[in-house]
Design a protein that fits this description.
The chain has about 90 residues and is an alpha+beta fold. About 50% of the residues lie in helices and about 15% in strands. The protein binds zinc ion (ZN).
């Protein structure tokens, strides 16, 4: 079965996990992480590719990927936005 994947989503996910390993944020639950991913991905260009059972079929130019610094900047911006206005009440106790 052919699958459509977004390479930008993979690198945003990695950037978020890297950030969470080194910083604490008000809430890092599944919902908040999904909110952060959505906000960051909406601001970065998508890079879709087609794979067949994990094997990449289409060639995408790796130099067309948004650079790591830009990805991390958007992830940090998304974290600040979600921290300021989380989708659920955060229990600080
Ligand atoms: Zn949360």
């Amino acid at each position: 079965m052919y699958e459509l994947s977004n390479h930008t989503e993979i690198i945003v996910h990695q950037a978020l996990q890297d950030y969470l390993r080194n910083h604490s944020i008000p809430c890092s639950c599944e919902l908040c992480q999904a909110d952060i991913m959505a906000l960051a991905l909406n601001r970065l260009p998508p890079r879709y590719y087609v794979s067949l059972r994990g094997e990449i079929i289409t060639q995408w130019e790796s130099h067309n990927l948004p650079d790591q610094a830009r990805v991390m900047a958007e992830v940090v911006r998304a974290i600040q936005q979600v921290s300021a206005t989380p989708s659920h009440p955060i229990d600080h106790t």
